[in-house]
TrEMBL record:
Organism: Hyalella azteca (Amphipod)
Pfam families, per the entry: Sulfatase (PF00884)
Record-stated family: Belongs to the sulfatase family.
Alphabetical list of PROSITE patterns matching this protein: SULFATASE_2 (PS00149)
Residue stretches making up the Sulfatase N-terminal domain: 25-349
Family matches, as SUPFAM superfamilies: Alkaline phosphatase-like
Keyword check for Lipid metabolism: no
Name of protein: Arylsulfatase B isoform X1
Length: 569
């Protein structure tokens, strides 16, 4: 090799290295609302195909030991702050639309960090971190734009949010402006169209951070909870449960959205330089919980519980140009939802040691290169009002009064989707569907071998348990923490066998850990509902009502809701 050529190659190498750090990847962060462990094909169910989601998962890294919070607000606060909700005051119950509080303003949050790193930051879909004053809303917190809703859920078609049958109003905006044009259009389509328009008009001289937080597959208002275009519901005539058929339509819309986003990235020549994160926000509301029919099978429990079904997330990271593990790697590293802030900051080229102290850790070296994480312990949560808690150390999990709002949610809820007999659910057909899906086509165009390993990956990502009983023989519920249950999660992910009495030393160790976490918890921020928030005073819109003169000249007193005193121990 001539010295001139050597010199050229050397300079080229330098340029490539410099390019990598100066031009960090686009990040598309997709949050599915209320999606169960078993609602994605890559965890083994064949009941409802999710070919686009699966195509990315099977060619990315599947996070199979990854924990989210049991409910929505805590999870979103953890994504945004990098802190566990016991450190933001958002650990108890989601924020009600009419409650005047939100993610505290003294915290610098994810989009602000991304903006500092040179990103264009855009939010589409759900917020749910407070809106009583404008300062709590997305465009005042680091997002350059937001298109979507502020409350916990809306009707999929008319975009209204009902609160406990007492208050009701329209909740849909472009930035701070109420967007009436959106009325009547299926919510998932609104968000997809917006994401596509953001991508196609994106000026690639700066990287894009797109936070795409879907309404799907959350239930809408109680009078019409499960909504999908009829043609989508009709595709699933082989599913007997009518509610699950509607759910399948909602999920299919979500999956198609993922495919459309991938196609848009490809068309804009941004696909190669993009990292896609997909995550659920909490476990699935199964068996009718929240008027919904997600599936966490074979995991135990539902959304809002600290059983595995409530907290084990469905997630993957895709970005073959930045990931040095083989496509379809199934990671069993212990990750948590509060890890995203430091992780995305690192992907953006930031130095994580410059971040303030956080609960989350940078898992990028682990996700991208398989480096084991240093995490030994993990707090699921402590709910000081419901007196429930769950804490994890290594393979062990201690759990006390973990259920949502009643013992009936302590069970295992199907469908399993593994023994489907309909022709539509034949595995070979599903695999072909994955390869033919828009995401599959784009993935294969980049790497023709990327989806050679689907069956192996799928088998590795499944959780198999011995059949669960119909009725649990124990529920880990009692008057004090001496009734706590202990599970060895790696060998008993379905929480079938309480081994607390056999392992008193482990219980003691985990109790200590719980007390340690508990001693750092801040008080809950929950506030009573403010009658002045009622949309009937504001043209039937949910607005940042405390920025305006009160409807009757009197502002409600902002009283805190503290529930009963903590009854642990
Ligand atoms: C919104 O849709 C629900 C049913 O999905 C219906 O009950 C309600 O009346 C609708 N409201 C408006 C304003 O269209
Ligand atoms: C993209 O941004 C760069 C840098 O700000 C600017 O020079 C360029 O004109 C922009 N391109 C378009 C098409 O707006
Ligand atoms: C990150 O910041 C720390 C503290 O300022 C510094 O010691 C370290 O060298 C930095 N790392 C990189 C890769 O720049
Ligand atoms: C599927 O069917 C097989 C054979 O009938 C049975 O052993 C297995 O338990 C079933 N699995 C599920 C998840 O229903
Ligand atoms: C195939 O999948 C298995 C299981 O996830 C994984 O260990 C392996 O590395 C994958 N192989 C290739 C070539 O992608
Ligand atoms: C789960 O069971 C299926 C057979 O039903 C098997 O193919 C798969 O490898 C198993 N996966 C794990 C992780 O045990
Ligand atoms: C357990 O939690 C539920 C709410 O999830 C609560 O109503 C109940 O009082 C709690 N039980 C005890 C013993 O604290
Ligand atoms: C705690 O629960 C145990 C077992 O149910 C019971 O024997 C004990 O009296 C309880 N202690 C307190 C302080 O309530
Ligand atoms: C109510 O709160 C708003 C916003 O904080 C403020 O502008 C207004 O003066 C208050 N009204 C009363 C009657 O206290
Ligand atoms: C947990 O911390 C709270 C204060 O944040 C305290 O009231 C409670 O007693 C603690 N629980 C235990 C079991 O120490």
């Amino acid at each position: 090799m001539s010295s001139q050529l050597k010199c050229f190659l050397f300079l080229l190498a330098l340029k490539i290295t410099a390019y990598a750090s100066e031009n960090p990847p686009n990040i598309v962060f997709i949050v599915a609302d209320d999606l169960g462990w078993n609602d994605v094909g890559f965890h083994g169910s064949r009941e409802i195909p999710t070919p686009n989601i699966d195509a990315l998962a099977y060619s990315g890294v599947i996070l199979n030991n990854y924990y989210v919070q049991p409910i929505c607000t805590p999870s979103r606060s953890a994504i945004m702050s990098g802190l566990h909700p016991i450190h933001t005051g958002l650990q108890h119950c989601p924020i009600k639309a009419s409650s005047p509080y939100g993610l505290p303003l003294d915290m610098k949050i994810l989009p602000q960090y991304m903006k500092d790193s040179g990103y264009i930051t855009r939010a589409v879909g759900k917020w749910h971190l407070g809106f009583h004053h404008k300062e709590f809303t997305p465009t005042f917190r680091g997002f350059e734009s937001h298109y979507g809703y502020w409350s916990n859920k809306i009707d999929y078609f008319n975009l209204t949010a009902d609160e406990d049958g007492r208050m009701w109003g329209y909740d849909f905006r472009r930035d701070m402006n109420i967007d009436h044009d959106a009325y009547g259009i299926y919510a998932t389509d609104l968000f997809t169209t917006e994401a596509l328009s953001i991508i196609s008009s994106h000026n690639t001289s700066r990287p894009l951070f797109l936070y795409l937080a879907h309404l799907a597959v959350h239930s809408a208002n109680p009078y019409a909870p499960l909504q999908a275009p009829q043609a989508y519901v009709d595709r699933f005539s082989y599913i007997k449960d009518e509610r699950r058929r509607k759910f399948a339509g909602m999920l299919t819309k979500l999956d198609e959205s993922v495919g459309a986003v991938v196609t848009a990235l490809r068309d804009r020549k941004m696909f190669d330089n993009t990292v896609i994160v997909f995550t659920s926000d909490n476990g699935g509301p199964a068996g009718g919980y929240n008027n919904n029919v997600a599936s966490n099978w074979p995991l135990r429990g539902v959304k809002a519980s600290m059983w595995e079904g409530g907290v084990r997330g469905s997630a993957f990271v895709w970005g073959p140009d930045f990931i040095r593990q083989p496509p379809g790697t199934v990671s069993d590293q212990l990750y948590a939802i509060e890890d995203w802030l430091p992780t995305l900051y690192a992907i953006a080229g930031g130095n994580v040691s410059h971040l303030p102290p956080l609960d989350g850790i940078n898992i990028w070296p682990s996700v991208s290169a398989g480096v084991p994480v240093s995490r030994q312990h993990l707090l699921h949560s402590i709910d000081p009002v419901f007196h429930g808690a769950a804490v994890r150390s290594g393979d062990w999990k201690l759990l006390f009064n973990a259920s949502g709002d009643g013992a009936s949610w302590d069970k295992w809820f199907g469908p399993s989707g593994r023994n489907e007999t309909a022709p539509e659910t034949e595995l070979s057909l599903l695999i072909q569907k994955i390869k033919d899906s828009p995401a599959g086509v784009a993935v294969l165009e980049k790497n023709p071998d990327a989806l050679n390993n689907i069956t192996l990956t799928r088998n590795a990502a499944m959780i198999n348990c011995t059949a669960a009983p119909d009725e649990p023989s124990f529920v880990c519920r009692g008057q004090n923490i001496s009734d706590a249950c202990l599970f060895h999660i790696s060998s008993d992910p379905c929480e079938l066998k309480d081994v607390a009495s056999e392992q008193p030393d482990v219980v003691k160790m985990l109790l200590q850990l719980f007390l340690q976490y508990n001693s750092t918890a801040v008080p809950i921020l929950n506030k009573a509902s403010d009658p002045n928030a009622d949309p009937k005073f504001w043209n039937y819109n949910w607005i940042n009502w405390l920025d305006f003169p009160p409807p009757h000249g009197v502002n409600a007193t902002e009283t805190a809701v503290f529930g009963q005193p903590n009854k642990f121990l």
